[in-house]
Amino acid sequence: VPMFEKMDDQLLDAMCDCLKPVLYTDDSYVVREGDPVDEMLFIMRGKLLTVTTNGGRTGFFNSEYLKAGDFCGEELLTWALDPNSSSNLPISTRTVQALSEVEAFALMADDLKFVTSQFRRMHSKQLRHTFRFYSQQWRTWAACFVQAAWRRYARKKLEESLRAEEDRLQDALAKGGGSSPSLGATIYASRFAANALRALRRNRTRKTRLPDRISPILLQKPAEPDFTAEK
After folding, report:
1. In this structure, which CATH number among 1.20.1250.20, 3.40.50.300, 3.30.43.10, 2.60.120.10 belongs to the domain 2-134?
2. Burial tier of 222 (Cβ tally within 10 Å: 0-12, 13-18, 19+)
3. Is 37 helix (H, G, I), strand (E, B) or coil?
4. In sequence order, which ranges of 19-135 are alpha helices (DSSP H)?
5. Which residues form the Cyclic nucleotide-binding domain (predicted)?
6. Residue-range domain boundaries for the chain
7. Which of 8, 12, 80, 162 is the residue whose CA sits 20 to 30 A from 176?
8. Residue partners of 96: CB distance under 8 A and separation at least 6
């Protein structure tokens, strides 16, 4: 697990002593979205599917596959690292299902809390970035954030393009003079109308095809793990 690679041998040994071997059969569920997370799972063999609907939001769906070397239940790590966390376990944001027979090691909530009490002294920005990169929650949130930014950029470019076409149309009309527009003005007017119509049709088709799509930016940003030492 990349987040633990900077641990010293003594701390790793303490964590390994707490691990419990577990076996999941084909099609069984490790955890369901909305259920409390009571273990962090380190996969040794098999394949799992992890899915989130962002709390049941209509039109939102994200899925990933997990295999040997992957882990799940990182919500529990954030909870365990918080010295002020309550006794209530964190709620799973994903449903994890075994697609084949899965062998794994489980680290239970209380054991993880004990290990992370020693882990907090390892304050490191690199550790923070590593957690974000490998966390499914953070990866999903980042992908949605990038999609939302791209949509804003594309909408801004479209508006700028239509505005430029409109400015050229006005210039052509002004240069044409008289009551009848020039050939250039007519061409620009035609282009502007065609581009505006194309944009409207594109937006209408998109809304018809995805009527209930939720803006990606509505996905809640995951909690930041606290790696600072307890005061």
Report:
1. 2.60.120.10
2. buried
3. coil
4. 74-81, 109-119, 125-134
5. 3-87
6. 2-134, 149-208
7. 162
8. 29, 30, 31, 41, 48, 49, 50, 51, 66, 72
